[in-house]
Amino acid sequence: MEPALNLFKWKHYEAELILLTVRWYLKYSLSYRDLTEMMKERGLNIAHTTIMRPVHQFGPEIDKRIRPFLKSTNDSYRVDETYIKVKGKWMYLYRAVDSKGSTIDFMLATNRDVDAAKRFFKKALSSPHNQSPRVITVDKNPAYPPTLQQLTNEKVLSKETLIRQTKYLNNIVEQDHRFIKKITNPMLGFKSFLTADKTLKGIECMHMIRKGQAECNHSPVLSTVELINRLFGLAA
């Protein structure tokens, strides 16, 4: 992992200001042009592209750097996909939360099939902050049963894991989708899969911080600032 302070080398603006705009964009329902107007009120003329590039750079960085700070999730997985528009086409954001609503993991995919579902489960099961599932609840997506059977056969998943395929029990993850869509809707779709993936990683991480999944202390707002600054080696 690249040293945090090196990421700000040769940047036109100070690290604190860069992280401020990135944090606001990923956390609130704002467009890039909303942010440029907000910065203008502070006496700063920042082009929306000057905000966009750091969002694409630091979204994945936040995702990498926050993992060691995440609290353990529980062993009841609730898995579902939501739709994200990329270059005018719908793609699939695989998401899983536990029975208390904490985010287990997420992954953007171009398809809704066995291969995509398998990659998502392997990603979730390999994350150190996640427990091995006692039960996995999925919806009626026909790709899930063969995916989970393959993972069991490959001993990635325990034979003791209970698989429940019922939409009713997945309300908690469907409700959680709304927070992500609330942030992405003002963006009016992404221009490419890569930029969508990078941005969504940052959005999901800010959502995890909001839900109290990261090791923070003080008030929710201050703890977010402090944690993000800490991740990038800046004084809070």
From TrEMBL:
Keywords: DNA recombination, DNA-binding, Transposition. InterPro entries: DDE_dom, Integrase_cat-core, IS_Transposase, RNaseH-like_sf, RNaseH_sf, Transpos_IS6. Residues 64-228 form the Integrase catalytic domain. Coiled coil: none annotated. It comes from the Bacteria. The keyword Lipid biosynthesis does not apply. The keyword DNA-binding applies. PANTHER family: BLL1675 PROTEIN. Involved in the transposition of the insertion sequence. This is IS6 family transposase. It comes from Paenibacillus gyeongsangnamensis. The lineage of its organism: Bacteria, Bacillati, Bacillota, Bacilli, Bacillales.
